[in-house]
Design goal:
alpha/beta; globular; Rossmann fold; about 325 residues
């Protein structure tokens, strides 16, 4: 019996050693190219999609500017903006995300470039930034563990089946058998696509808050304020309210318009509290919101509008 116990114990020990070896190999391979525990210095990653690939792209040592937001800012071309402002820009825009996920990406970007006090952050502030919900709950799953500074959290979350799939793609990438994600993070949903006249859906009007809307009602505002207080005064911040098709912009004088104006004003007041901070508002009735052939749907504009936003960003950041 003792011998059997020893045999079982020995088998368990070998199994644990094998598992430890597999985990160590997985961490060393670093399938998402986070730089943690990695034996491979190259900054490239398979084309997993934005949620996972940005762990690599956001830490590129040769960049100093990032575009953050969701699909409402996704069409801003980092290569074109880089040429216009003389900085190296990456897009970290992830469709379906809100303030919580976007600030996690901003903090990750800042951590990997902490030696540079003059970083640039362009935030696309869509309707999710005007929420009054507390707490803010992400609409879709997001790998916060991948962008966390907690290494233990990272290790524990690497022990999942999908990571082994990612490891296989990493090996293919290193062997030249897989296509890497675009190095600047750009995902163009417009160029080369066949456009059809959109059928604009009705957008539900949010219920107004009773009484006067205050800056403190907007849950994302202090979160952004906390992030801004963590970066140096030399960092440049641009807050962009992206355009929507005119039919989805609240009518002047309505309760929804009053709340939207209050939200915009709250972020404008925040911008005034620090230097090198600007607000650009395209979410108004203008030439950029009135032509339906410039839109795929209510909130996703096409190339000509994106180029206009890029030009305005260049005017602000290139000065």
């Amino acid at each position: 019996m003792e011998r059997m116990g020893l045999a079982v114990g020995g088998e368990t020990a070998r199994s644990l050693k094998e598992q430890a070896a597999r985990i160590s190999a997985l961490l060393a391979l670093d399938p998402y190219d986070t730089g943690r525990f990695s034996l491979f210095p190259a900054h490239s990653v398979a084309n997993f999609g934005q949620r996972l690939a940005f762990a690599s792209i956001a830490r590129r040592p040769d960049v100093d500017a990032a575009i953050l937001g969701n699909s409402t800012i996704q069409l801003i071309d980092p290569a074109r903006l880089s040429r216009s402002i003389g900085h190296s820009v990456v897009s970290l825009a992830v469709p379906g995300t809100g303030p919580i996920e976007q600030l996690a990406l901003a903090e990750y970007f800042q951590r990997h470039h902490r030696r540079n006090p003059d970083l640039t952050f362009v935030f696309g502030l869509d309707q999710s930034w005007c929420t009054m919900a507390s707490p803010i709950t992400p609409n879709y799953p997001f790998p916060f563990w991948l962008y966390s500074s907690d290494r233990l959290d990272y290790v524990l979350n690497m022990l999942r089946y999908k990571t082994f799939e990612a490891a296989a793609r990493r090996l293919k990438l290193l062997a030249g058998l897989d296509r890497p994600a675009r190095a600047d993070g750009y995902h163009d949903y417009d160029t080369g696509k066949i456009w059809h006249a959109p059928e604009f859906d009705e957008v539900p009007v949010p219920k107004p808050v009773g009484g006067q809307t205050l800056a403190s009602d907007f849950t994302a505002l202090p979160l952004l304020q906390r992030f801004l207080s963590s970066i140096g005064p030399g960092a440049r911040i641009v807050l962009v309210f992206p355009p929507r098709y005119v039919s989805t912009i609240p009518a002047a004088g309505s309760a929804a318009a009053t709340e939207l104006d209050a939200c915009k004003d709250a972020f404008r007041q925040l911008a005034k509290t620090r230097s090198n901070t600007w607000v650009i508002d395209f979410l108004i009735d203008s030439q950029f919101t009135r032509h339906e052939d410039d839109y795929w749907d209510n909130i996703h504009y096409r190339g000509p509008v994106a180029r206009a936003i890029e030009d305005r960003l260049a005017d602000v950041l290139g000065s």
